[in-house]
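Human: We require from you a protein record containing the residue sequence and its fold in token form, and nothing else.

Assistant:
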Amino acid sequence: MMRQNARECFGTHFEGQHLSLSDLKEKPNIQNHDYLYKNNIPAYPESVEFHVQKVSHVTGEQGLEGIFLNSGFRQPSEMVASDQHHFLWWALSVTPDDRSSADERFLASLFPHRSAAQLRNQPPVLEHFTTSKAFQKKSSYGNFCFTFSLKELLWHYGKQFCYDDQSPVMHVYETVLYPKEIQYTVVVHPHYVKIYDRCPRLPKYGDGVCGYNGGAMWWRCQSPSEAYENKLEVNIFARSVSVSPNHREEYYVWDHVCVAFHMEPGWVLHVDRNKLLKNVNACEISQPCLLRAPETPLSLNEAEHVLANLKASMGWGLECGGWR
């Protein structure tokens, strides 16, 4: 189903499913998605498994002020007034350590029995390919990035919105295909909210796109770049992998995972202000800029000054690592 999201971007939605790249290619009559069907993409690491413990929420200057005013996260008033589902959106935040571990898993999947010398002599591979927005510090959604462990957020959400100390439920919500992007959405909600029961539960294990287990979201990334300027070369005899420049840059779809927390009108996911201050950083805006009016993009220097002034106004002593 083709529809427009809250930021006026059109995408094709597949509800209750996380469809792989190959699954999407087999779907008939998907229009305006030419990148999906390109067949000249150079070889790259496919279906790389990341184990990601952290998620991030990015907002603009007014959103930043609202989060500290409310001591937590809530839906913007204009979104609450709409008839859409009320979500608090978070993206997976892939760390350098996450990428290193994924590199090791990818190489082990190709060559399970490498010698110690082969292990030492193999340079990292993924750093040449993980260039999409899923791996960048920049964001299209604002200049201020809050980063938390997903496990901690689920704990706060369960304590505040779930009855009888129940843990929240996680479901496979949908796949959204944009012209250059595949978004996999996981929805988090209390047990008593039944509107997502048509969606399958998010798996702990399996061969799907993503799941949650042991405090981490595992994600099998199928296309880690928006534009492939390198190609992967596998030497099965030397049991090694190398990277070489491609003759031209090839644009393609890229994929990522979002976690959407169900929020009723008036709900605020409260987090201690001390933690909010510790876990927020300024970041650059990437294109396309998807800030909602009246928010405006700032330079990184401007955003850092805004954040420094906010911390100073709240009596945050950086030399003490906390409140003065």
The helical segments are 21-26, 61-70, 77-80, 96-110, 116-121, 150-161, 273-278, 300-313. The radius of gyration is 21 Å. Confidence is low (pLDDT under 50) at residues 1-8, 318-324. DSSP finds eight helices and 18 strands in the chain.
